[in-house]
Amino acid sequence: xxxxxxxxxxxxxxxxxxxxxxxxxxxxxxxxxxxxxxxxxxxxxxxxxxxxxxxxxxxxxxxxxxxxxxxxxxxxxxxxxxxxx
Length: 85
What we know:
Layout: H1 3-29, H2 35-64, H3 77-83
Helix pairs in contact: 1-2
């Protein structure tokens, strides 16, 4: 798969997760889910979003420095989350 296509797939996944976040907030506001459910699901989405953004940054950095973007790998959320602290 071409580099641009792979990058677009990652961006599409990020867009879908952002839409899922909005849907969760709307479901909470309408009473369809409770606060604990929203928080649990939001936490899962946020961790996955962080991993997607990390992968995208890795790919772009590799391309910028003449490396193969396809060598970038999804890292565990524990590793990615550690960067934020």
